[in-house]
Here is the input.
Amino acid sequence: MAKITFMVPYSDIFEDIQEVFTQQNDCNWTIELLAIDGVPRRIDYKKLKTDVVVARGMTASMAERVMEDIPVIRLPVSGYDVIRAVLECQTRYKSQRVAIVGTEDMVYGARSINEITGIEIVTSIVDNEEAARKSLTALKKDGITIVCGGVVSTCIAEQIGLKTVFIKTGREAIYQALIEAKRTYFVKKQEQERSERFRTILDYAIEGVVAVNEQGNINLINASATEITGLEGKMEGKPADKVLPELRLGRVLATGVAEVGEIKTLGDRQVIINNAPIAVKGQVVGAIATFQPVSSIQELEGKIRRKIYPQGHSAKFSFSNIFGKSKAIGRAIEIAKEYSAVDSNVLIVGETGAGKEMFSQSIHSASDRAAGPFVAFNCAALPENLLESELFGYVGGAFTGAAKEGKAGLFELAHKGTIFLDEISEISIKMQGRLLRVLQEREIMRLGDRKIIPIDVRVIAATNRDLGEMIREKAFRPDLYYRLDVLELHVPPLRERTGDVLQLFEYFLHSYCSRFGKPDKTIEPAAQQLLDRYSWPGNVRELMNIAERLAVIAYSDTITKEDVLSAFNPEKDALAAGLEVNAAKSSEPSLYTAKSKQKLDKAILLEVLQDVNYHYAKAAAKLGISRTTLWRWLKEM
Here is the structure.
């Protein structure tokens, strides 16, 4: 069992670290939380018994300088973390001038905060205690009174009489740091194992092999090495560091230390190189390098794949991020949590802006795949000719413009995790057939390749259209539908979530006011009534937009009815029409409901348009749909 030592910069983060680690549910790891109180200069890093260290700022810099054999993972500080700290300075101290002092990753991008907040930002990059003390002393002489930073910077700043705000780290950064710590540990472990395995291998028919004597002159080179490097003529007796400097065999001779898993270019090929000293009774008498093209060993899940493939696919949301007290949303959450406990495919159905991707991320985060990648893709974002290569990848030269080294598809990147296919209804019949094959066989083949790649992926698909109707219109394959629709989840539209509108609106409004550095606002009853009675065709996404708009344009501390109406401009008339429809719901049946997902009869649509004198915004509101949907129907009719 491996161990992660987490150097905790402040006590408030203890609970977040423990909770994120527990959610990953990895029985192969234990965690040690080491509190850093004040300046961490007296920590005896060399005595730490651990496999990997996670630290932040100057604590990480100190650990990197001292701990040569144990990997140190930096706990990142995002731009949002810095902005939150700067805004806290402004709120707490009413200051328009703030210094940010810390390591480069903490200070990076801070200068642009001035453009966002209007606060004058002074930055200073330091990586040790002595540099921090000098910098802070100079800043104090320059008139700085408030400092944002990490453990070292804030401790020293308080010692010399400056006011401070500690820059805290968000949960997403903790999650990524723990994932990176585990990944780095396994890379190191694989490199050590590989070093032993290849240390004295001299001749493989499929590998290039170059060996040198104690003086660094080549005494063995095989045919594969000659073919890979493109060298011609007799190489024996020539100095390796001049003929093949990329191998760096001279350094292995000097240090006696194996170098494993290096990726270099020899000639016109990328190769992976393993170097090892040749020792007799403890005395280094030569060195050997074995190498082969990366393309021949890409199937290995080792260092090569981690260097070539992009990273960063992860879920940002969990069920705790889904707000609402209505029965409709509560039931949807209950069902989604049940789905999280199994590994079957899920089809999420809901209107645009209702929160389908948030539910998909939450299902992933609560599942046994939470430690794996979450790869999200909008099927309507690319044309068909690009969609296939994006989903399944391609080999070098598969088509004009293809990258020479090829590219992994999203299904490969989602291996051991979840892939979210949004707007699944928008893919062509041809692509539906290819996707069906992947779901049936759980394996993919890159474009231009004949090699089958097995995958272990959970598929969550989403749509805002009626797939049953599309099947009847022969626009969607029924066999694919039944593969996707193993577990179905309906995300309720906002108009069906009784009582949730005001709760969500107040939450979004508070968030945007905090982000923009504006005071919190209250909402008068007449404004609440407008918001609560509106049909919200754009659902939660539209509600967020209105909240953000009001956080910016409402100058008073109280949001009035007029403020709400102005926020909907130029859709003010649509809002009024929508209210009229909602008020008359008890006596007049609705012409359109989200449950039916059926297009209107042309005669009914024309009747509605005539009733509102062909005012499209009013017609859309009366029908309970978005103007985009109305325009699409008109175009199709």
About this structure: Confidence is low (pLDDT under 50) at residues 298-310, 580-598. Residues 592 and 623 are 6 Å apart (CA to CA). The radius of gyration is 30 Å.
